[in-house]
Design brief:
Structural class: alpha+beta
Radius of gyration: 29 Å
Distance between the termini: 114 Å
Shape: globular
Largest sheet: 6 strands, antiparallel, barrel
Strand order of the largest sheet: 2-3-6-7-5-4
Number of strands: 14
Strand content: over 45%
């Protein structure tokens, strides 16, 4: 006596195998879709090449910025604007409109909603008074009108005297007052006071 049930078992196994593959592929597809949905927001919504930005206040130019590349990320939880290839900024004071201050950095990021700015990589600042600051990072909290860094700051005054803030500094954003931490240098507090006038 011979049983010929093997073909039907083969059909059942083939059917189950096909169903298993279908469910595996479907679940993989859903996972890929979910992952893509999470990642799809992490791209710039605007890209500006050779940017030239001018900011005005009541007709007066307060800031002029140039950058090879600016990218704007608007679709994420905390939107920001980034200049990954460096930035050059001139800022103007109404008291000395013809002598702008300057900031350069290799990288800059701006959180527009918080009005919080960060600059990194060979950050250089020249004030309209002629003071020169050099550091590796700088943060500006615009609503509080404060800038600060925890990096070593090298300052050169207009007369050539120098100061090193080994543990960073905080300052008003117009540099009318500043505090250096663990400082050394070759000028006196009298010279600092004179430079603030």
């Amino acid at each position: 006596m011979e049983l010929r049930l093997i073909p039907s078992y083969k059909k059942i196994i083939a059917c189950l195998f096909s169903c298993a593959i279908f469910f595996i592929l479907t679940s993989c597809e859903e996972d890929v879709t979910k992952n893509n949905a999470k990642q799809s927001k992490n791209f710039p919504s605007q890209i500006i090449n050779n940017a030239n930005i001018i900011q005005r206040d009541s007709g007066f130019v307060t800031l002029r910025a140039t950058a090879p590349l600016i990218e704007k990320y608007e679709l994420i939880d905390t939107p920001y604007v980034v200049a990954t290839k460096g930035i050059n900024i001139q800022f103007f004071d109404k008291k000395k409109p013809k002598v702008p201050g300057k900031i350069t950095a290799k990288y800059a990021r701006i959180f527009e909603s918080k009005k919080f700015y960060e600059a990194k990589g060979n950050v250089r600042i020249t004030t309209s008074e002629g003071q020169r600051f050099a550091m590796q990072s700088l943060y500006w909290d615009q609503p509080k009108r404060r800038i600060y860094t925890h990096d070593t700051v090298y300052v050169t005054m207009e007369d050539g005297s120098t100061l090193v803030g080994a543990k960073g500094m905080t300052a008003k954003d117009d540099f009318s007052e500043y505090t250096f931490y663990k400082n050394t240098g070759d000028f006196s507090s009298a010279k600092i006071s004179e430079s603030k006038r």
